[in-house]
Task: inverse folding
């Protein structure tokens, strides 16, 4: 409340003076905060509308600050629109090399993604090391097996033996809870998709899973762009191995220290020449 003496002083008038025109015995400025006129001097009693922080109760956290931190946004809204059911690897996988049609090189492409994910390139581990481990000792032999032989590629036993020797891994058996757990922990999952019509297999790498929609995201050397999301079917996506890193053994040390790498790029010609 301001009396007229205080009002004139506040407005710059003569102290103690009074206007002949504006005789104001008393000016009342309603205190914001929803005062109900009960003589509580502006105490915020929850009336409508509160307009500034009256600092009561102390220390002013009664929620009536018109300028809250964050520009007045709801502090409970973090604008996170991600799907809580989606589980992806914590970091992206390297681009998978595109597979030539009607060839058997899918295992090399899938293993290459996993190797690079764990720093295989920097270690000196490449596709030729995997090929040499199964007895394909030069580009010509590898090209004959993976590119020319119509039924070429690794057998399931060869693939599993290679994985066990090079990588620390866990067999999953198709359990979705295990898939989610390993993805959350940064473990890409090597798997084989079986075509029931031909009983042939195609190696892929599981990099994401949605528990709500039962959709699985895979790095696939035959997919446009190298990544696709498909419905998960445990009966056709088999031989799942969650990879947690490289082994520390004589085999890995042997191939990481060799100096005759010949399959570092994505593809080979029919003669075995590295072309990319």
Result:
């Amino acid at each position: 409340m301001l009396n007229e003496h205080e009002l004139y002083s506040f407005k710059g008038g003569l102290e103690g003076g009074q206007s002949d025109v504006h005789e104001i015995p008393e000016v009342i400025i309603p205190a914001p905060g929803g005062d109900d006129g009960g003589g509580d001097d502006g105490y915020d009693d929850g009336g409508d509308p509160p307009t500034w922080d009256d600092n009561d109760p102390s220390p002013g956290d009664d929620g009536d600050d018109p300028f809250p931190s964050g520009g007045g946004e709801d502090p409970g809204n973090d604008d996170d629109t991600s799907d809580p059911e989606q589980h992806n690897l914590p970091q992206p996988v390297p681009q998978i090399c595109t597979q030539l049609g009607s060839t058997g090189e899918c295992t090399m492409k899938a293993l290459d993604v996993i190797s690079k994910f764990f720093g295989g390139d920097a270690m000196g581990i490449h596709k030729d090391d995997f090929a040499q481990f199964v007895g394909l000792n030069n580009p010509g032999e590898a090209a004959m097996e993976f590119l020319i032989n119509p039924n070429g590629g690794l057998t399931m036993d060869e693939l599993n033996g290679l994985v066990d020797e090079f990588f620390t891994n866990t067999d999953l058996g198709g359990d979705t809870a295990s898939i989610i757990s390993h993805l959350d922990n940064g473990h890409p999952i090597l798997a084989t998709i079986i075509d029931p019509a031909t009983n042939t297999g195609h190696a892929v790498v599981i990099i994401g899973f949605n528990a709500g929609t039962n959709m699985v995201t895979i790095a696939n050397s035959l997919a446009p762009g190298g990544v696709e999301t498909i419905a998960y079917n445990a009966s056709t996506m088999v031989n799942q191995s969650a990879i947690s890193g490289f082994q520390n053994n004589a085999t890995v040390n042997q191939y990481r220290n060799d100096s005759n790498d010949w399959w570092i790029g994505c593809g080979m010609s029919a003669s075995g020449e590295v072309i990319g």
Summary: The CA atoms of residues 85 and 218 lie 17 Å apart. The radius of gyration is 35 Å. The first strand starts at residue 2 and ends at 3. The beta strands are 2-3, 26-27, 86-88, 167-171, 189-195, 200-210, 215-219, 227-231, 237-246.
